[in-house]
Design brief:
This protein folds into 3 domains: about 70 residues, no CATH class; about 500 residues, Alkaline Phosphatase, subunit A, CATH 3.40.720.10; about 180 residues, Jelly Rolls, CATH 2.60.120.200. The protein has about 850 residues and is of the alpha+beta class. The protein is built from 16 helices and 33 strands. Keywords: Calcium, Hydrolase, Metal-binding, Signal.
Length: about 850
């Protein structure tokens, strides 16, 4: 018996080893008795998921004669760290105190003091493109995110679909034994795949993140977000006055850390932590606004702020001592001393709320880091804290705005006297606010320009702090090597001792395009030359190329708030080219293109080669036009939509689009005795949208025009008990939609006439002099039978405002303008001009 058992154990060991025959013996790490429930192993990682092992036990006719066997549990290599990957939103180099800013960021300071500062960390100049690059280790066009999903077009580099051949860091770590999670902003699910129809393979849970708590789109109302747990919508703020997502997601992350640790203390954790701060809307709590206001950081204006930050940066040594501050752009932004007293008052209010949002977010990040310390894991936790997915946003325009949705509809200069009406509620649930671009320019110090500007360091040069107490000993050190967000994935893999997979789900993987910067963790390599040698940048037709210290840039030809109008027809060649030697010119201040024409020519050719290699072509300089370009959502090609039951939560990207079209909405309802109230249909919310509802029994249709005006049709009489047909018919006066093909926006925001009918009889008719051209409030949803989140008219009702009539049927018919023969001729003529320019 003893001999037989020994022979069986030997067979088990052989089977266990055979399971991972491809893994070198020295790399395989096995614990426990092979075949026992407690056995673990690391894997080669070449193929994910790891193939199922052959059964290693013994099977006879009965259980007493047989030997059970369990496959080993897969674990990461011994010593693999926990990973906390933090990325904030719309924050330039000069925002945090860690890099000379005046906004207190003690959490970032702490990580810098316990680890390393990095001053040459690069983004893509826009949010979801940077995030796609961050989680895949590939360039943003390679990952399908040449722009945000809401602007996606039918080209591989721009379709907002991360290919199956580009597994994310979440998926790789998950299959290697990590617990993986994602908190906060997810702007990498296609806008046309964000509904409960799915598919869910492009949601965090489908890309290797076991747990997701956050919002799907580019921004969110932090007081009332369209929030998800995994793929299920949740509303945790209900019944909790003062609830804010910045704290809410920190609470959820802390609970997750505790839950995973208490369940299995040995299992490493990976968290992608992406707060909405400091993307608009800027929504901090009053406590933080009061703290910042009491500090009087901004009383002297944005010109003085820029100078202060610049001097702080020199004192800290986080920029080169000989750095120069480029001139203030008087032609773009009014200097502070030319502003009126009312403008100064408004702008200071705007920036104090922004600063409070940044400080508040940093504080809550600190609570998450402390949670790792509280469970005893911080020593072996790699913390990567990236300040900003691009430079500071200027999408509020020179004056700022109480409603960011207005900017996306072409209203980027709301008069100051109008904005002052929102002064006391700035940053509360009553605003979707953004600050003046003058502050944004200052917060990108020592660089210039903003988010969206891929050719200027103000749009792409971020900063970062990294700590890993068990490994990084050069505490407080500064690293100046060139690093791009695509370098984060290979760095995490090297730190964990995990190789990038060759196959995932049977699909051969595209090579990782980033370069690990783990070599910078060692003090002896602190001054080592950058291993990442060449990097292209491109965003909406503005582009640059970095090549071993040299930077070729296209001159900025569009401010971020100039999203409408005719775009550059030939963004590859129709450019003014600038050249910089960043090894001698830290802040991109000295254009030397005239002295080096051959270098300019050489780098232009190299950019084109990189563009071809990474799916950057075809270049497209359009901005707003891409927001309304056709894309394959679930409504594509449909002109009629029928609903027979209440339903809420359908996102804007998957719901019937009524903008720039004629439409008819017909509701068949039964009104009970005593009358009825409530929402029949709504899309959008407080900051832009429409609602079709019964108010004190009377039918109402209302358009909320970016919270500046509300256009209302209302019946004179309440509906009597019984069955009724209530209809809103809108006739749009717009031109052919085909004009969008070459960025002529004349087919948008045209007038139209709406008629409200009851049982076929018109009860109200009104003409809209203009309509919304681009978007509704895109963090709100399309709801039938009630209204989630915010309402389109606070004066009439408060959500959820359920419909008390019985809904039998709701029908929406959309009649979109067609391309006319004249449109086709205009389009062909425009294309000929483009071709001639290229030739």
């Amino acid at each position: 018996m003893i001999r037989s058992r020994s022979w069986s154990n030997a067979l088990l060991c052989l089977s266990f080893t055979a399971m991972f025959v491809a893994l070198p013996a020295k790399a395989q790490q096995v614990t426990g008795t092979p075949g026992s429930p407690s056995a673990t192993t690391s894997i080669s990682g070449k193929q994910l998921p790891a193939p199922d092992p052959k059964f290693g036990g013994v099977i006879k006719d009965d259980a007493l004669q047989s030997k059970s066997w369990w496959a080993p549990r897969i674990v990461p290599p011994k010593g693999a760290p926990n990973v906390l990957l933090i990325i904030t939103d719309d924050a330039g180099f000069g925002v945090p105190s860690t890099f000379g800013g005046v906004i207190p960021t003690p959490t970032m300071d702490r990580i810098a003091n316990e680890g390393l500062r990095y001053n040459r960390v690069f983004s893509t100049a826009l949010c979801s493109p940077t995030r796609a690059a961050l989680i895949t280790g590939r360039n943003h066009h390679s990952a399908g995110f040449g722009v945000i999903s809401e602007q996606s077009t039918g080209f591989p580099g721009y379709n907002s679909i991360i290919g199956k051949d580009k597994a994310t860091i979440g998926r790789i770590l998950l299959d290697n034994g990590y617990s993986t999670s994602w908190f906060g902003k997810n702007h990498n699910t296609p806008a046309f795949a964000a509904s409960q129809v799915g598919p869910f393979d492009q949601w965090p849970t489908g890309m290797g993140f076991e747990y997701f708590f956050g919002f799907v789109g580019g921004d969110a109302n932090q007081w009332q977000p369209n929030l998800f747990r995994n793929t299920t919508q949740i509303y945790p703020f209900e019944g909790k006055p003062g609830w804010n997502l910045i704290t809410g997601m920190a609470d959820d992350a802390i609970d997750y850390i505790s839950r995973i640790h208490q369940t299995d203390p040995s299992k490493p954790i990976f968290i992608k932590y992406a707060p909405g701060a400091t993307h608009a809307p800027h929504h901090p709590t009053k406590e933080w606004v009061d703290k910042i206001r009491a500090m009087h950081l901004f009383d002297d204006g944005y010109n003085k702020l820029r100078e202060t930050i610049f001097e702080n940066q020199k004192k800290l040594g986080v920029i080169a001592k000989d750095s120069k501050l480029t001139p203030w752009p008087d032609e773009v932004l009014k200097p502070w001393d030319q502003l009126s007293a009312e403008e100064k008052k408004l702008f200071i209010r705007q920036v104090e709320v922004f600063a409070a949002y940044a400080a508040y977010s940093d504080h809550e990040i600190g609570r998450v880091i402390q949670a790792f310390q509280d469970v005893g894991k911080l020593d072996n936790t790699l913390v990567i804290y990236i300040n900003g997915d691009n430079g500071t946003s200027a999408e509020g325009g020179p004056l700022g705005t109480p409603n960011e949705v207005a900017f996306f509809n072409g209203l980027n200069e709301i008069p100051v006297d109008v904005q002052m009406k929102f002064y006391d509620v700035w940053g509360t649930e009553q605003t979707y606010n953004h600050m003046s671009a003058g502050w944004s320019w200052a917060f990108d110090t020592p660089f210039d320009w903003f988010k969206q500007n891929a050719s200027r360091l103000g749009g792409i040069n971020q900063n970062m702090v990294v700590s890993w107490p068990a490994r990084i000993k050069d505490k407080g050190g500064l690293r100046e090597q060139f690093i791009h967000v695509i370098d984060v994935v290979p760095t995490i893999l090297e730190a964990a001792g995990i190789k990038a997979p060759e196959m995932v789900d049977g699909i051969k993987q595209a090579p990782i395009e980033g370069t690990s910067f783990a070599y910078t963790f060692d003090a002896k390599n602190g001054k080592m030359a950058s291993k990442h040698k060449t990097q292209y940048f491109e965003m909406m037709g503005q582009w640059a190329l970095y090549d071993e210290g040299w930077l070729l840039s296209t001159k900025v030809n569009r401010a971020p708030w100039q999203a409408f109008g005719t775009a550059n027809p030939d963004p590859l060649n129709n450019q003014v080219f600038q050249l910089y030697d960043l090894s001698k010119d830290f802040s991109q201040a000295n254009d030397i293109a005239a002295q080096h024409p051959q270098k300019v020519k050489e780098m232009r050719e190299k950019f084109l080669a990189e563009a071809k290699k990474y799916q950057v072509l075809p270049l497209d300089a359009s901005v707003a036009a891409r927001l309304v370009a056709p894309r394959p959502n679930i409504t594509a090609g449909r002109t009629e939509f029928v609903y027979t039951r209440p339903m809420v939560g359908l996102p804007q990207g998957d719901s019937p689009a009524l903008l720039n079209a004629s439409y008819t909405i017909t509701a068949d309802i039964d009104v009970p005795q005593g009358g009825a109230d409530g929402m029949i249909l709504t899309s959008g919310g407080r900051f832009a949208g429409y609602g079709f509802y019964l108010l004190k029994g009377k039918p109402v249709f209302l358009w909320n025009m970016v919270d500046l005006e509300r256009i209302k049709w209302e019946g004179a009489e309440a509906l009597a008990p019984g069955r009724h047909t209530v209809e809103f018919d809108f006739k749009y006066d717009g031109l052919g939609a085909g004009t969008l093909a070459f960025n002529n926006m004349s087919g948008l925001a045209r007038p139209g006439t709406g008629t409200l009918k009851v049982d076929g009889k018109a009860v109200a008719t009104k003409t809209m002099p203009k309509t919304l051209p681009m978007i509704l409030q895109w963090d709100e949803s399309f709801d039938i039978g009630s209204d989630t989140l915010t309402g389109v008219n606070d004066a009439d009702y408060k959500p959820p405002f359920p419909l008390t009539a019985k809904l039998n049927k709701l029908t929406i018919k959309v009649d979109r303008p067609q391309l006319s023969p004249e449109d086709i001729k205009k389009f062909e003529a425009a294309m000929k001009k483009v071709e001639s320019a290229r030739e």
